[in-house]
Amino acid sequence: MVEVLNLINGQQVSADRWLDLVSPATGEIYGRLPRTPTALPAIMVARDACASWRNTPVRERSRLMHALADAIESDLAAFAEAESIDTGKPVGLARTVDIPRAVANLRWFADSVMEFGSEHYETGSRAVNEVKHLPVGVIGAISPWNLPLYLFTWKIAPALATGNTVVAKPSELAPVTAWKLGQLATEVGFPPGVLNIVHGLGAEIGESIVQDDRVGAVTFTGGTVTGRRIAETAAGQFKKVSLEMGGKNPTIIFKDADLDSAIATAATAAFANQGEICLCGERLLVHQDIHDEVVAGLCARASELVIGDPLEPETQFGALISSDHRDRVESMIQRARDEGGEIVHGGKRPADLPDRCRDGFFLEPTVITGLDMTAITNREEIFGPVVSIMPFANEAEAVEMANDTDYGLSAAIFTEDESRAARVAPAIEAGTVWVNCWLVRDFRVPFGGVKHSGLGREGGDDALRFCTEARTICTATSRTTGDVTKGAVPT
Ligand code: NAD
Q: Can you list the domains of the chain with their CATH numbers?
């Protein structure tokens, strides 16, 4: 049995109360994690560790982060297996995407912080301004279960690199790789109190991080309902928040698209990681003339997916995160039927699973047609392997349908017409729009959502800026009286 512990002040700390760790692939309890009531002890040590960590030379902070990345990389197979067991995702995906990306997150921020210096501005001949980017202090990092280590490191890496101490709370549904990372952080020499990892329920320990006014900023990835609650709590303290939340992303295929490639990518966008990626394309908008061809192509792709034991290397499609989540997705499929939609592929629990996985939380990739934008199916985030296909008549209608949502995280458009791409991409209300591709990510670009999908941007310099406060030091280079009427203060 796996026993996850809290990491506080460099020590593995046990708990009085526990939560079960359940394997999505088998339905079995395979360990436990602390149900910690409050993050207070971790916040206190993180606060105490602030002064020395912020004064640790950036080169040393960067070295430690690379050492942590090295340690994870050299244990990549074990991390990938742990991620697969914890989430039900195919181990091949964890091995090629989740864990390498976690390593890359640590390395990228370890390197980019070296270039993240202060800025200098001369104000005529009167003064020089130095803008320093100083750490916020203690940063709370709250992450979800779908890409556990990937998103956990995406949050802690910029915070640590810029000299903040961290109190991080992984999802209670998938905490194992964060716990393993914490052990390695101690081994490679992170000073006690710099990185604290605490486990438990969002409504308990998560809330205690957000409520504590010693936590200067909270970086959160998760659902929109949770994000709203965090924003409300943080607002009272004028605490910085970065919120990466849900999506209802459109994939748009125009008549002039390279259809084979568009269908293949749309299928990946719908079903990768069992549809449990915030960037998945749950709404597939298709020109009416190619609607039937796309439906057939997507169903063919869905039926080719190898569904099975996530620990088998050939498996492409694993289990959903929990029994509750599968129930929820199934109820949304039933609602699609009730709304008049047709389930043209999937919609059921797969029959043909290995014995070990008989009680796992599997659900077939599912394709729905026949619903328009008034259907709840096309408005609420499902966050599972379900795609709804809708026809459009022309470009204007496609854009209107794409934007007819509370969300605005991402979109993907497929067209061979460059002028169309140049018109449509900026017209879509989303943080990221992909043209003829999906999920191509560059560390340097801002990442985030508009509307109910996000507040703020992460990635690149945006993350480094979020984790720091700008302080301007303006030094006179010629003495003035400070009399504004004499032009002493330039505009
Ligand atoms: P969730 O909101 O239920 O939980 C996310 C994290 O917040 C967990 O660690 C949870 O314990 C914690 N939490 C819950 N309630 C809290 C509270 N009141 N105060 C503080 N913390 C609290 O989300 P989830 O089910 O883990 O993840 C799925 C959601 O995440 C989906 O909506 C998905 O779209 C979204 N997501 C967004 C992105 C993005 O980058 N925009 C990436 C991945 C997932």
A: 2-245+449-472 (3.40.605.10), 250-435 (3.40.309.10)
| Confidence label for 489 from pLDDT (cuts 50, 70 and 90) | low
pLDDT at 490 over 60: no
221 lines ligand 1 (CB under 6 A): yes
Residue 439 has pLDDT above 60, yes or no: yes
Q: How far is the CA of 293 from the centre of ligand 1 (A)?
A: 36
Average pLDDT, rounded, for the chain:
97
CA of 7 to the centre of ligand 1 (A): 21
The residue annotated as part of the active site, out of 81, 83, 172, 244, is: 244
- Identified catalytic residue from 81, 172, 278, 458: 278
Told to judge if 293 belongs to the known catalytic residues of this protein, a careful annotator would answer: no
Q: What is the pTM of this model?
A: 0.97
**CA separation for the pair 400, 381 (Å, rounded):** 18
330 is an active site residue: no
